[in-house]
Each structure stands twice: as C-alpha cells, then as structure tokens.
Write a structure and sequence with these properties.
About 45% of the residues lie in helices and about 5% in strands. It is mainly α. The chain has two domains: about 50 residues; about 40 residues, no CATH class.
Length: about 90
C-alpha cells in the first residue's frame, strides 16, 4: 500500500503511521472537512443564496392547491440518491 499523496508526493513516514489508532478518525475528520468546504465553495460560486425551509413555504401561494403535489414529490425525490435542492418563492 503506497498511502495518501500530498502535492504529488507520498508522505515520507506513511508506513509508520498506518497502524496508529488515531489515523482512521483523523482521516475521517479530514474527509468531512474537505466535503464541507467543497459544498460551501460550490454554493458560494453558484450565487443561489439561502434556501427557505418547506416549513416556511407560503402554502396560500399560488391559488392552485400545490401542497399535496409538492409534499408527495418531495417524499419521492428524497428517496433518490442524487442531490436535490428545493426552491420556493419568498
């Protein structure tokens, strides 16, 4: 096993670290932080602003009764493995 790469080079003492009990939690924390930073960066670059929660959605708008349709579609879409964004008119 070659170990993780940093800037195109292997870590010099990777073999000495592989059996350490702190390595797995450290790598998990790093992956979590990288994913969080990546999501924050992508949201910032997308310029889509903040999301309104479904609980704050104005169900009186529009006049057509969309509540059941939206909630059933939301339930269906939440079962999908892909990323989903719900957007509502403020």
């Amino acid at each position: 096993m070659s170990g993780p790469k940093k800037s195109g080079r292997s870590l010099a003492h990777w073999a000495e670290c592989t059996d350490q009990p702190w390595l797995d939690p450290l790598l998990a924390w790093e992956e979590t932080e990288r994913a969080r930073h990546s999501l924050e960066r992508r949201l910032r670059c997308a310029h889509i602003g903040r999301f309104k929660p479904l609980a704050d959605f104005d169900w009186a708008w529009p006049v057509v009764e969309w509540r059941e349709i939206i909630l059933s579609e939301a339930d269906r879409l939440l079962q999908l493995p892909s990323n989903i964004a719900f957007m509502a008119r403020p």
